Amino acid sequence: MPKYIFNKETLSYEEYTRSGKLKIAKGILLFAGSVAVAVLYIWIYTSVLGYDLPKTALLKKTNDRLNSRLELLNRELDADAGYLASLQERDNGIYRSVFGMSEIPPEVRNAGFGGVDRYAYLEAIDRTGLLKRTEVRIDVLTKKAYVQTNSFDEIESVAKKASEMAVCIPSVPPINPDKDTYRLSSSFGYRSDPFTGRTKRHTGMDFACKIGNEVHATANGTVETVRSDSYGYGKYVIIDHGFGYKTRYAHLSRIDVKVGDKVTRGTPIALSGNSGRSSGPHLHYEVIYKDNYVNPLNFMDLNMSVSEYSQLVGKAAAPSSSDAVNNPA
Question: In this predicted structure, what is the pLDDT of residue 49?
C-alpha cells in the first residue's frame, strides 16, 4: 500500500516514494543482521551449549567408526606379529638347523624400507598418526612374511634333496651280515700287503666269504663301471650314487648289472669271487666320497640283524636291465 505525507507548501497530501539507494542500504542492513544472528546462533549452539553441527557430528561419528576399525586391525596385527615371531624362532632354531642351514640374521628379517618417506601423504589426513602406524605395521609384517615364505621354500627344497640324499648314501653292508657266512679279513687303512709284505694303504674293507655269496648295492644309484682287471680288482662294479658318493665291489665271480642300470639299496648286483689280484675268496668293498677313499665302516652297521637286512633286500627293486653280464671284457 502506498504511503502519503502532508506537504506544507501545497497544503495537500502527496504520495511518498523512497529512493533506490535507501532500499539497497536497508536490504544490506537486513542481510547483515540476518548473518549476525545466524553466526550468534551457531556460536551459542557450538561454543556455549557444546553441541556439534549436524555435518560435524556425522564426520566425527564416521571418524570414530574408522578409528575403531583401525584399533581392531592393530589388535589383529599384534596377534599376527606374535605368530610370525614364533614361526621365525622355530625356523631358525629347529627347521633350518635340522638341515644344517644357517640362521636368517635379524637385520634381514627386520630390514626397513629406507629412502623417501613413503608415508608422507598420510600426514596431511592423519593427525593422530594411527593410520600411518597401521600402514607401517602392515608393510613390515608383509615383508617379514615374504622373508619367512622364502625361507620355508628353501627348507622344502633342501628337505626334498635330503630325502633323496638319504637313500643315496651307502649305509648298509654289501653282503648279508650273517657272521656265519663271512669274516672281516682286512679293514680300511694301512696294512702289510699280502703279496709284497710292504706297508700299504688299504682303500676298502675285505669280507672273506665263499665264492658265490650274493653282493648287494649299498645305496640307490646308477652303475657307472663294469670291468675286468686280471692284475688288480678283477671283475668289479662301480656305482655312482650322486651327491659325491661312489662304491666299488671287487674280485667278483659274476656281475649281474651293466653300465647305466639304475639300482636301489639292497639290489643284488653280483656274486663274490676270487678274481684279479686276490689272496683268497673275498669281496673287496670301497666307499669313495668326492674322489677320496673313506672308511666304509663309518657307513654301515655290521651288527644289523639278518632279518632286518633280509627285509631291506626284499624291498629292493631288480636292476633295470634284464640281461646279466657274466664275463665283462
Answer: 66
Task: Tell me the C-alpha distance between 306 and 129, whole Å.
Answer: 73
Instruction: Specify whether 288 is located in the same domain as 216.
Output: yes
CA 267 to chain centre: 34
| Cα–Cα distance measured from residue 128 to residue 38, given in angstroms and rounded to the nearest whole number | 32
In contact, 217 and 239? CB cutoff 8 Å: yes
111 and 12, same domain (yes or no): no
| Per-residue pLDDT tens digits for 77-88 | 888 888 888 888
Instruction: For residue 250, give every residue at least 6 positions away whose Cβ sits within 8 Å of its Cβ, in sequence order, or none.
Output: 204, 233, 234, 235, 236, 276, 283, 284, 285, 286
How do residues 29-52 score in pLDDT, each as one tens digit? 888 888 887 777 677 766 766 666
Please report whether residue 29 resides in a domain: yes
Q: Are 229 and 251 in contact (CB under 8 A)?
A: no
E runs forming strands in the chain: 3-7, 12-16, 183-186, 189-192, 199-202, 205-208, 214-216, 221-229, 234-242, 245-255, 262-263, 268-272, 282-289, 292-294
pLDDT score for 4: 67
CA atoms 317, 320, 325, 329: torsion sign: negative
Q: Nearest 5°: phi and psi at 130? A: -65, -45
53-95 pLDDT, tens digit each:
667 667 767 777 877 888 888 888 888 888 888 888 888 888 7
Position of cell 564426520? 59
Burial of 119 (0-12, 13-18, 19+ CB in 10 A): middle
The count of structural domains within the chain is 3
Determine the Cα–Cα distance for residues 146 and 152; give it in Å rounded to an integer. 10
Residues 287 and 199 in one domain: yes
> Identity (one letter) of the amino acid at 121?
Y
